[in-house]
Amino acid sequence: MPRVGIVGVGLIGRAWSNVFARAGWDVSIYDAHDATLQAAPGLIEASLHDLAGHGLVDDPGGAAKRVKAASSLDEALDGVELVQESGPERVEAKVELFKKLDATAPQSAILASSSSAIVASRFTESLEGRERCLIAHPVNPPHVVPIVELCGAPWTSPDVV
């Protein structure tokens, strides 16, 4: 079963978790803010049940069981095929976070950012694995509207896109 690491579980990160869990992926979530991380599984499960009431999720309980909170970034990224970052919308924060993601995630994993206003080249230029980085910006709300804008940097591999 495919595995995704969701880094940052505010509203957008939780919505991504919802999308991947209902699609059958194993979802590992992480947030540096402990209270946000602790609240996320319950909020994701409630959202899945809400969507089931509208016919958008077949098995909300099963989907919720695929979402696991990780106690560290290393744990969250262990064995993932994709990292979906939804952290603070600040260049400096993304530069630091993507350095960690590039160093920690499996080399074959795609590193995607939900950024809506910062292009990938602003925070991936100096990364060793920069060819695997891109923007995967969802239309809001991501768990309801199935459209994602993909934007690579000049060095993003076409295979990644």
Set out the fold topology:
Elements: E1 3-7, H1 11-22, E2 26-30, H2 34-52, H3 60-65, E3 67-69, H4 73-77, E4 82-85, H5 91-104, E5 110-113, H6 121-124, E6 133-138, E7 148-152
Parallel strand pairs: 1-2, 1-4, 2-3, 4-5, 5-6
Antiparallel strand pairs: 6-7
Helix pairs in contact: 1-2
Structure description:
- This protein is of the alpha/beta class.
- It has a single domain, classed as 3-Layer(aba) Sandwich (Rossmann fold), CATH 3.40.50.720.
- The chain contains six helices and seven strands.
- A seven-stranded mixed beta sheet has the order 3-2-1-4-5-6-7, with helices on both faces.
- The mean pLDDT is 96.
CATH-scheme architecture: 3-Layer(aba) Sandwich
Strand residue percentage: 15-25%
By DSSP (H or I, 4+ residues per run), the number of helices equals 6
- Radius of gyration from the CA trace? 15 Å
Number of domains: 1
Write out the strand line-up for the largest beta sheet, numbering strands in chain order. Answer: 3-2-1-4-5-6-7
Question: Could you give the count of β-strands?
Answer: 7
CATH homologous superfamily caption: NAD(P)-binding Rossmann-like Domain
What is the H/E string?
EHEHHEHEHEHEE
Overall mean pLDDT stands at: 96
Which descriptors apply to this entry?
7-stranded mixed sheet; 20% strand; single chain; alpha/beta
In short:
This protein is an alpha/beta fold and 161 residues long. Helix content is 37%, strand content 20%.
